[in-house]
């Protein structure tokens, strides 16, 4: 867990294995009541919501000097993934192409999730994706981040986390299998 660990692993994969793409999957908390447990967010853009150098220059919160505020996923991978997800998802699952916000703390507060949504138009919040995106951006490696929603700020989180992980693992493995076949 965490941005530093995720960035380190991404850089090792790129340096040692010379990967053509980086695809990161995992779970995230929804930032609004528009999403529900089991829904999927395909990260079109990623941002580090806890990065703040506004006091040292003309920067916006989340903006990283010389790289920008948002890291955009590879458009081709987003499109392919969107097609695949619509094929494999069940009727209870919605898919959102949107913004994933990453930070180095577990965001359990509904108020904080709402604040992150307002500041960055983020659909979900997690702890790794934007750091991986930054490494891929710097190394010019196409990337994609996919998150399954494990909880939402409305408190209607009736599914046990371990049951959720089992469900999303099966769903994501099918998505990844098809994605690898198409790229």
Would you summarize the structure shown here?
By secondary structure, the protein is an alpha/beta fold. 40% of the residues lie in helices and 22% in strands. It has one domain (3-182): 3-Layer(aba) Sandwich (Rossmann fold).
Please describe the topology of this protein.
Blueprint: H1 3-17, E1 22-30, E2 40-48, E3 71-72, H2 75-88, E4 95-102, H3 110-120, E5 124-126, H4 129-139, E6 143-151, H5 161-182
Parallel strand pairs: 1-6, 2-4, 4-5
Antiparallel strand pairs: 1-5, 2-3, 2-6
Helix pairs in contact: 1-4, 2-5
Q: What is the name of the CATH topology? A: Rossmann fold
Q: Secondary-structure element sequence? A: HEEEHEHEHEH
Please give the domain count: 1
Counting copies of identical and different chains, the oligomeric state is single chain
What kind of sheet is the major sheet? 5 strands, mixed, barrel
Estimate the mean pLDDT confidence: 92
Write a concise keyword list for the protein shown above.
183 residues, Rossmann fold, 5 helices, 6 strands, globular
Fold and architecture overview:
It is a single chain. Helix content is 40%, strand content 22%. It is built from 5 helices and 6 strands; from the N terminus they run αβββαβαβαβα. Strands 1-5-4-2-6 form a 5-stranded mixed beta barrel, surrounded by 5 helices. The protein starts with a helix and ends with a helix. Strand 4, helix 3 and strand 5 form a beta-alpha-beta unit. By secondary structure, the protein is an alpha/beta fold. The protein is globular and about 45 Å long. It has one domain: 3-Layer(aba) Sandwich (Rossmann fold). Helix 1 runs parallel beside helix 4 and helix 2 packs across helix 5.
